[in-house]
Amino acid sequence: MISLSCVLLFLFFTYEKCDGKSHPKPSCGYPPSQWCRTLEIAVECGVQKQCMELDATRPDPSVAPVEVTVYYESLCPGCRSFLTEQLFPTWTMLKDIMTVHLVPYGNAEEIPGQNSFLCQHGEPGCKANVFEACILNVTGQAAFPVIYCMASSSDVINAALPCLQLNAPSVEWEAIQSCVIGGLGHSLMHENGVKTRSLKPAHKYVPWVTFNGVYKDDWEDKAMSSLFNLVCMLYEGIKPPVCTGALMKLNRSFC
């Protein structure tokens, strides 16, 4: 899979101005996202040197990515802001060195024997939590973009269908609905409740963010204001160019 930094670098080369001059697109028939896909394409597009430099900076696969787990509620305004303004942009830039796990449950309470839950934002909050739990279960790797799309909308629940169609078109809407109204949705919520109640220290608010399974107050504070920098700091391998600023140096090399 092509590195995201490669895509961003070439998009920059294509559309940005360097030293006040606009650079034309390379004379090749491939979009920027494909320029480093094969040696032949890189040569045709005249970016072989840059692709080789980027390959040399790919993360070491033997180094574990930073594992970011977010315990949240789907209709919580603060949670939605964190997902849309910090988590998703950071993941977009650093997906090579981080993994994201979402646990929609938050301050909900399971009612024993009644097969139901009480949620801080009422019944709509519970419904939104179930929708997102089902989307996480059914859509796999496409789940985060779908949930980001939902969190960015004015109506989280009604945005589920168009967000799914946009970001995971191969997934049948009926599969999500079946999960939501069936036993699977309840089971997923129960599992999320168990995970949330097992947190040590216990969560005091949402969003509650752990890194590699560990919670620290200062990490939480940094995550709310500059998650990107925190993930770069916590990554134990050689920092990718997007963390170190080398990407900007490579950008300038095109000028």
List the helices and strands and how they pair.
Layout: H1 4-15, E1 17-18, E2 21-22, H2 39-45, H3 48-56, E3 66-72, H4 77-94, E4 98-104, E5 109-111, E6 116-118, H5 122-139, H6 143-152, H7 160-167, H8 173-181, H9 183-197, E7 208-211, H10 217-234, H11 241-244, H12 246-253
Helix pairs in contact: 1-12, 4-6, 4-10, 5-6, 5-8, 5-9, 6-7, 8-9
Explain the overall architecture:
This protein has 255 residues and is mainly alpha-helical. It has two domains: 4-58 and 240-253; 66-234, Glutaredoxin (3-Layer(aba) Sandwich), CATH 3.40.30.10. The chain has twelve helices and seven strands. It has a three-stranded mixed beta sheet. A two-stranded antiparallel sheet has the order 1-2. Helix 5 runs antiparallel to helix 6. The longest helix is centred in the middle third of the chain and has 18 residues, at 77-94. The protein is globular. The relative contact order is 0.16.
Q: What is the β-strand count?
A: 7
Cross-sheet strand order for the largest sheet: 4-3-7
CATH topology call of the largest domain:
Glutaredoxin
CATH architecture descriptor name of the largest domain:
3-Layer(aba) Sandwich
Low-confidence stretches: 1-25, 246-255
Could you give a short account of the major beta sheet? 3 strands, mixed
CATH superfamily of the largest domain: Glutaredoxin
Overall tally of structural domains: 2
Subunit structure: Dimer; disulfide-linked.
Signal peptide: 1-20
Keywords: Disulfide bond, Glycoprotein, Immunity, Lysosome, Oxidoreductase, Redox-active center, Secreted, Signal
Domain Saposin A-type: 21-61
